[in-house]
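Team,

Forwarding the record for the chain on the shared tracking sheet. I've put the sequence and predicted structure together so nobody has to dig through attachments.
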Amino acid sequence: MRARLLLPLAVLGVLVACADPSGRAAPDDVSDLADTSLADTSPDSASDASDADAPDGPPDVPLDATVEADVSDDAPDAEPTDTADPDAEPADADPVDVATDVDTEADTMPSDDQLAILSLNLHCLELGGTSFTDHTARFAAIADLVATRGVVAIAVQEACDNGTLNALDALEAALESATGTPWSSTWAFAHVAWEGTAQEAREGVAILARGELVNPGSLTHRAQNGLWRVMAYATVTLDSGPLHLVSVHFDHQHADARLAQAREAAAFPLALFAPSQSVLVAGDFNASATSPAPLAMAAMGYRNLAEGAGREGTRIDHVFAHRGAPFEVVSRSLVFDGASNRVSDHPGVLVLLRPAAVTPAPMTRLVAHVDVGFGKTLSVRGELAPLTWTWGWPVLNTAADRWEAVFTELPEGEPVPFKFLVGDVTWQVGDNAQGQGGQTTELTPTFP
């Protein structure tokens, strides 16, 4: 059953109808998108912040000090060759390693206390590059693996509808047939793929899960540069508790937009689902694991669950879970990666998890009570990593006059000097605000 895109009441703040870059109006099912802006707030524009209210002292080295090589192919399936220097990231942004004794194969049905999550880019409705000559057989192959591996949820990218075939509907039907259980889904429109060609289709990101999805919704990325990008989210109800799953597909050409989108994918779910830290972000990052975009996830406390799954150094599909999520990795592997079973131009990434006791990370909440105006955005800069005075982490608009950022990597009990900025350019007036690691700080900032 397709779930409608409904935002929780907590995020019914600034609502902007998502416009397709071609100028066509967005479909009804993505008209309610929170915290969106047509302004590009990529690091390039953010670096111009030189307001007199900026803090004194030398800036930190930005995460994007080194730019990744761009990709010249405009096709949605273009895979970049990442040449970014991973040393461009600060030392504290190194990925959080998972256990080294984890299996890299997952060939059997999980036990009752385990759950399997799949991330898969469908490559729209293209059969080229697959092992199949029709979509019925292609979707049946995906459903068969899901049934035999006990997959409970799928983060899908490039889920397309060309007016004749809706990939998500067809895949959901195949899943129900293969597993004998009901599935539900949510889909967020991103852009028109291959516009003006015979392959033209409406493309988006999606989540599929056994049973009912709770509070499905979507967020439009602030930084846009070319093909429009969004993220879809929903809560999957498991026996062990809720899992907040986010499906992403970042910009494939522009490194600055890709990095900004990754920062949003790392920051927004923590604020959206707080106080829960059971957050998993999966999808097509269009960047290898040591590039700035995936490393931005690590800076916010996320573990790379797919590390060691295969194609290391070139794989651009990843699965990240926050370190406060109450599970551990049993195995990770690439699927649909053989000559006879390829269902896309991307392999799928399958992670097998089991519940585990974890100590929740200390949550530092920085809350601004302010209405900055329709279509404008808020960011926060500060003294302690992952904050920096050089560029701002995006702040989620949770009500018309409320903005919230949640950090789990700030030292608990330490003073946290910070400032909010409008559009990551205009500083709040006055002295630095003072927060404390592990605590909530609320203020009403003013801007010129």
